[in-house]
Amino acid sequence: MEHNVLSHLSLQVGDCLKRHNAILSVAESCTGGLLASTVIETAGSSQWFDRGFVTYTNQAKQNLLDVKSITLETFGAVSENTAAEMVRGVLTNIQSSSGYQTGRLDIAISVTGIAGPDGGSPAKPVGMVCFGIGILSNYQQLIRTTTQFFKGNRSAIRQQSVKFALEQVLAIDYDGLR
Fold this sequence. Notes:
Elements: H1 3-19, E1 22-28, H2 34-40, E2 49-54, H3 58-65, H4 69-75, H5 80-96, E3 105-113, E4 128-137, E5 140-149, H6 154-171
Parallel strand pairs: 1-2, 1-3
Antiparallel strand pairs: 3-4, 4-5
């Protein structure tokens, strides 16, 4: 995937978020900071990007995002359950911070998956990536999850994951949230 595709998507996300008085934050595992990096390469991203967490290990997910050990033991790090707890952790972190603004929308995306080339199984193959999409508005959290299966090498899977995450931000019905 060309870098231009991700840059263009990030620019669209920034325009969309500014138009809707919304801010983006992320929690990443298999993308290892690529989503946040793609976003902050966009000029002016400080107007619409707040924070990012790279939580590659289970311990980091627990320590920084309050992912429950029972969730990790029962469903594994690569699961929609974990993606939901990751995104909830980001939203809770925002909500409990001293600068939380009730008049804006906070959007959070989490990404956890198997980028390969190792680590896959029949139940969770290389290329399986789970996403959490969360919205925080006036202390109310809305969270949904989805799973995608990408093809290619490690780099391609990570880039496709970033592309999908950015597309999810664009797909939100912002007008329906007000």
